[in-house]
Automatic annotation (TrEMBL):
Superkingdom of this protein's organism: Eukaryota
Cited InterPro entries: Methyltransf_16, SAM-dependent_MTases_sf
Name of the featured protein: Uncharacterized protein
Transmembrane parts of this sequence: none
Cited PANTHER family: HEPATOCELLULAR CARCINOMA-ASSOCIATED ANTIGEN (PTHR14614), S-ADENOSYL-L-METHIONINE-DEPENDENT METHYLTRANSFERASES SUPERFAMILY PROTEIN (PTHR14614:SF97)
Length: 248
């Protein structure tokens, strides 16, 4: 994936500086073994504090807690009805912190997902246990590849800070289109809810839906992705009916 164009370290203001560095091994670009270093921090979410272990450095950039996670968490608290009684899939879960928060705060039926990588999956499981939570179900999925669940039944797909990777837009569109177009409802009656968009307007939303946090730093970069979702692919009609994009 294409790396973000700004430093991650500069974004962690306010986090506790106590680090629990742990070493594991990963293969470098030339096959040599390299130590994986972790930093364990305490982060404030609405109404609670979570302990989150992040990679200090990871080749997939999949285990950092970005600012959009916190603003999206706040927005979801204000629009809790979007989650009530629904099965949720998070794309690009990274550390798993947002999913852990939603599970602990509201008991949300949520599944995490990120790049097909064992270290990312193991770290999400670690963070669940570190916050006294049973390990959440997880799907290892590389955007654009065949999805492991042939008939998706998640009512809402959420994501935060995943649109930094411009070169991955086509792959992301393929994954989101599949999740929306092949959706089969499970276990509850379909209903339409209203949520508050970024302008404060009440708008209707119906499952399946895709809701993402478009970080203010990357607002312009998100427009090509939105256009691609709205203009093409088998899931474009569903996306047009139910996309909810939150911006700060």
């Amino acid at each position: 994936m294409e790396a973000a164009l700004f430093s991650a370290a500069s974004l962690f203001h306010g986090a506790d500086d106590s680090d629990d560095d742990r070493d594991e091994m990963q293969l470098g670009a030339e096959g040599e073994e390299q130590a994986l270093e972790y930093e364990e921090r305490s982060h404030e979410f609405p109404g609670m504090k979570l302990t989150v272990r992040e990679f200090s450095c990871h080749e997939l950039n999949g285990n950092l807690l970005w600012p959009g996670t916190f603003s999206f968490a706040t927005w979801l608290v204000k629009n809790r009805s979007i989650l009530d009684g629904r099965r949720v899939l998070e794309l690009g879960s990274g550390t798993g912190a947002l999913a852990i928060f939603l599970r602990k705060a509201f008991g949300v039926d949520i599944t995490t997902s990120d790049y097909d990588d064992k270290e990312i999956e193991d770290n999400i499981a670690y963070n669940c246990r570190a916050n006294d939570l049973d390990v959440l179900p997880h799907i290892r999925h590389t955007w654009g590849d065949a999805f492991l669940v042939p008939i998706p039944d998640w009512d809402i797909v959420i994501a935060s800070d995943i649109l930094l990777y411009v070169k991955q837009y086509d792959s992301l569109v393929k994954t989101v289109s599949f999740l929306l177009s092949e959706y089969k409802q499970k276990g509850h009656k379909a209903d339409c809810i209203t949520i508050t968009d970024k302008s404060g307007t009440q708008v209707p939303a119906r499952s399946p839906m895709f809701s993402d946090e478009l970080a203010q730093k990357n607002r312009q970069g998100s427009i090509p992705f939105l256009h691609r979702m709205q203009e093409g692919g088998p899931g474009s009609a569903a996306f047009g009916r139910s996309c909810v994009s939150h911006q700060q």
